[in-house]
Amino acid sequence: MRRSRSTSAVLLLVAALAPAAGAQEPVDWQMINRIRDEGLNRSQVMATVTQLTDVIGPRLTGSPQMKEANEWTRRKLEEWGLSNAHLEPFDFGRGWSFSHASVHMVAPHQTPLIALPQAWTPGTGGPKRGKAMRITLESEKDFDAYRGKLAGTILLLDPPRDLLSAEEPALDRYEDDELAELASFPIRGERGPGFRQRFMQRWRFRQKLNDFLVQEKVLATVSISSRDGGLVRVGGRGSREVGANVGVPALVMTAEHYNWLARLAGEPAPAQRQEDGGERNGGEATSPPAQEPPAQEPPAAEVELEIDVRARFHDDDLMAYNTIAEIPGSDPQAGVVMVGGHLDSWHGGTGATDNASSCAVAMEAVRILKAIGATPRRTIRIALWSGEEQGLLGSRAYVEEHFAHRPLKDDPEQRDLPAWLREPAGPIEIKPGHADLSAYFNLDNGSGRIRGIYAQENVAVTPIFRAWLEPFHDLGATTVATRNTGGTDHLSFDRVGLPGFQFIQDGLDYSTRTHHTNMDVLDHVPREDLIQSSVILASFLYHAAMREEPLPRKPMPQEEE
Fold first, then answer.
1. How many structural domains does the chain have?
2. Which residues form the domain of 516?
3. Do residues 135 and 239 both lie within one domain?
4. pLDDT of residue 167
5. Which CATH number does the domain housing residue 226 bear?
6. How far apart are the C-alpha atoms of 219 and 486, rounded to whole Å?
7. Closest among 390, 412, 393, 411 to 401, alpha carbons compared
8. What are phi and psi of 484, to 5 degrees?
């Protein structure tokens, strides 16, 4: 393409001015030296994450272990010299915990099977034996075919699935080209039907399914884990509400053991992939694959299981708690910078990568700043959230209490739904504290090191974040992505027009092995990654707290669909 002299001159002028524009954002290199020295050479982050995981263990919101974690983090932050360390309550419902879970096949073979209970489902009240049946219950229409036929049975709710899918890498870090792609902004397509309607239908069906299973005197249900390789991926199934029908004991079983049971009970195995030739083995298919014979119905066997689950609900305190503490700013009028991650976890492992590691990083970041005697202009406040796994409940409650609130519909159809499923009833109601928050920084994508930060479509912060990342290029943090990311507590801030940001992290084995599974334990937390993340987070907090102006904001969000 041929350019005119005037066009070339303009491009040269823009290129000359671009570095200067980025350089206008001040960076305190001497303070970064002190942060790096303390964080890289005298880190306490592994001691913190070990206490939260190996010692305290899984931290399901409302459980005794979660309350222990709340108290321990409050005391530790106070011990490090932070001020106003306290717990802030919000309405949650009953807690739940389990102390024992065993599943044995007793016929046609005798062998232990690997399974865990779903949260907020009842125990079995001792060992119970019953026939395993593979049935499909996907809508109320399916109920009629089974009425009067399920008493004393253990139901296998899912079909078996093919486990020969293409394998993802066990441990994954961003390559340079992947980071470059992440930094590009994709224009989203047209919005499809809202998630709220889909989830509302699923939620309502689950209540009716609970009623049906109890009425039919089903002993328990078993679902297939969504992960292969002996992993059990758990979630919630019953109800946190006092007096609600919690259904029957519901368990999740490893895919390999579940498939075995389903085949024995008479379910055809899923079609397997072609193993010879074709792209899967790296060769070229020179002729169409032979027609596979139809799946043969396996001979059904009488499958009997023995299940023993010891679980209990905790009704003594229906509140959950966020741990809050702060480093006071030198200028009371300058506002607040916040940092956080969710302290709660699921109950399969010890919640190490989701999300004790990030909470330990956030705690280490404020410890570093206290240890080096930093005196920020703005107050730096840390928040360790509860209830993230149940719908960002802790951070949402905190934002509604202190910053802004979006009214929800209160008609009879909406009133019985969880708050995160109810439809908005009007515009955002701003509270005085809304103007005081300069930024909220969140960490919650596993235990991998920071590689950059999502600007959450706030292009005005991108040159600021690039300047703040520059001192850490040697530690692998280089990328500012203007695109959105979701799924965690920064959304509670973003949805009411506050600057909320999540960092870009190396995935490691978060999505392949540890996310919500029984393998989410300390062994999957790399020390060097947590140390790197801690010093970067400490620097971001300090620079956000020292800026002359608060961070720029996006336009206020429009009413949700």
1. 2
2. 23-92+318-546
3. yes
4. 65
5. 3.50.30.30
6. 38
7. 393
8. -80, 155
Q: Which helix (H) or strand (E) element contains residue 84?
A: strand 83-91
393 token code pair: 């409940």
Alpha helical stretches, state H, 42-133: 45-50, 64-79
At which residue do the structure tokens 């609970």 appear? Answer: 210
Reading the block at residue 221, the tokens are: 């249900």
Q: What is the model's pLDDT at position 170?
A: 75
Beta-bridge partner residues of 479: 452
pLDDT of res. 465: 98
Q: For residues 448 and 358, give the distance between their C-alpha atoms in angstroms, rounded to a whole number.
A: 9
**What gap in Å lies between CA 132 and CA 117, rounded to an integer?**
17
* Residue 43 sits in the same domain as residue 155: no
Report the predicted TM-score, pTM, of the whole model to 2 decimal places.
Answer: 0.89
Q: Are residues 127 and 60 in the same domain?
A: no
* Cα–chain center distance at 195: 17
| Cα–Cα dist 387/77, whole Å | 21
- 113, 102 Cβ separation under 8 angstroms: no
The DSSP bridge partners found for residue 233 are 517
Pairing of strands 437-442, 404-405: unpaired
What does the pLDDT read at residue 21?
Answer: 40
Tell me what pLDDT residue 413 has: 76
Listed in sequence order, the DSSP H helices in 193-272 are 195-215, 255-264
Beta carbons within 8 Å of 436's beta carbon, 6+ residues apart: 335, 336
- CATH code at 535? 3.40.630.10
CA dihedral 199, 223, 519, 514 (to 10 degrees): -30
* Cβ atoms of 446 and 510 closer than 8 Å: yes
**What are the backbone angles phi and psi of residue 98, rounded to the nearest 5°?**
-135, 150
Please give the distance of CA 304 from its chain centroid, rounded to a whole number.
Answer: 36
The contacts of residue 396 (CB under 8 Å, 6+ apart) are 419, 420, 492
Establish whether the linkage from the previous residue to 445 is cis, with ω within 30° of 0.
no
How many Cβ atoms are within 10 Å of 407's Cβ, its own excluded? 12
Helix (H) or strand (E) holding 305: strand 304-314
Residues of the chain with pLDDT under 50: 1-22, 272-296, 561
Give CA–CA dist 295/550, Å, rounded: 64
For 274-318, the pLDDT digits (tens) are 333 333 333 333 333 444 444 445 556 799 999 999 999 999 999
Distance of alpha carbon 239 from alpha carbon 95, whole angstroms: 10
Same domain for 377 and 244, yes or no, is no
- Using one digit for the tens of pLDDT, what is the confidence trace for 116-165? 999 999 999 999 999 999 999 999 999 999 999 999 999 999 999 998 76
**Integer Cα distance of 467 and 453 in angstroms:** 12
What does the pLDDT read at residue 257?
A: 98
